[in-house]
Design a protein that fits this description.
By secondary structure, this protein is an alpha+beta fold. The protein has 2 domains: 91 residues, Cyclin A, domain 1 (Orthogonal Bundle), CATH 1.10.472; 178 residues, Nucleotidyltransferase, domain 5, CATH 3.30.420. It is 46% helix and 14% strand. The chain has 11 helices and 9 strands. Strands 3, 4, 5, 6, 7, 8 and 9 form a 7-stranded mixed beta sheet that branches. One of its GO terms (molecular function) is metal ion binding. This is Transposase DDE domain protein. Keywords: Metal-binding.
Length: 277
């Protein structure tokens, strides 16, 4: 531990924390910052692009408090916040679009993708926003995101954020996922929450789900086995969500849906850089 004696006041203590990220991820963020500085013609900054990238990634990865990162780098907390917003906007602009991503997978010979939804926890809000973000399914406040992964569990697309009370199937219809899949010639494996999403299940099915048991119809042994096989193939999608949520800034999001969408898309780019390096 290093200590610095200020001119007056108490002694400051600076500690070191390991940042478990690859060099390619740091180089990506530093390169984007450097390009933006060149476009703006910035003549001077407190830190170089590489150091600024490390500060930003520490905030995103460990959810470090802005004031702590500011004090350790001799800058102000608003400066760190501005750095984080700048990097997040630059990264989110590189996030893949749904139609282009599906066509790319089909061109490579892909047949199916994995579809699922997840709730990103948020702080409780006041008034109507509080009720909108409450998810009865998860019994928690949050924002709903849909995601597509390839068969290996690599994230390829994330939907815009929606209030936690929204249903997954309604969100999928709003994003026209079925039509996009049909245009690309792909199918999607999904859980029971997406039963009924496919608008042409008999003639041209693209959404493959398991079978639900009802009061008047119990699942047969063959249907139960089919559900088990489907769930085994779908398990990879959970790895994609786990990689995304390893960024601890998502532990409890403190922003509205629009900014949360930008943040998630930026983290998607960083996650893919880490996983697919």
């Amino acid at each position: 531990m290093k200590t610095n004696q200020p001119a007056e006041g108490s002694r400051d203590a600076v500690y070191q924390v390991r940042l478990p990220l690859s060099k390619s991820t740091i180089d990506l963020v530093a390169g984007l910052i450097r390009q933006r500085r060149n476009r703006l013609g910035t003549r001077w900054r407190k830190l170089d692009p590489g150091s600024q990238a490390i500060v930003v990634l520490a905030v995103l990865r460990h959810d470090q408090r802005l004031v702590d990162m500011a004090g350790g780098n001799a800058v102000s907390a608003p400066t760190v916040r501005r750095w984080v917003e700048e990097a997040v906007n630059l990264l989110s602009a590189r996030a893949p679009r749904l139609d282009r991503t599906l066509k790319k997978i089909a061109k490579k010979g892909g047949v199916v993708v994995l579809l699922d939804g997840t709730l990103v926890r948020t702080r409780r809000r006041t008034g109507r926003d509080n009720r909108m973000n409450y998810s009865g399914k998860h019994k928690a406040h949050g924002l709903l995101f849909l995601a597509l992964t390839d068969v290996k569990g690599n994230l390829i697309w994330i939907s815009p954020a929606r209030p936690g009370r929204s249903s997954e199937i309604t969100a999928a219809r709003h994003d026209k996922i079925t039509a996009r899949l049909r245009e690309a010639g792909l199918g999607a494996l999904a859980d029971l929450g997406f039963v009924g999403l496919d608008d042409q299940p008999e003639t041209d099915p693209v959404i493959i789900t398991g079978r639900k048991a009802t009061k008047n119809h119990k699942l047969t042994d063959a249907e139960k086995e089919a559900n088990r096989l489907l769930n085994r193939e779908r398990a990879a999608v959970e790895h994609g969500f786990a990689n995304l949520k390893s960024w601890r800034i998502l532990t409890k999001v403190r922003m509205n849906a629009r900014h949360a969408t930008t943040l998630l898309r930026a983290l998607l780019v960083l996650t893919n850089t880490e996983v697919q390096r």
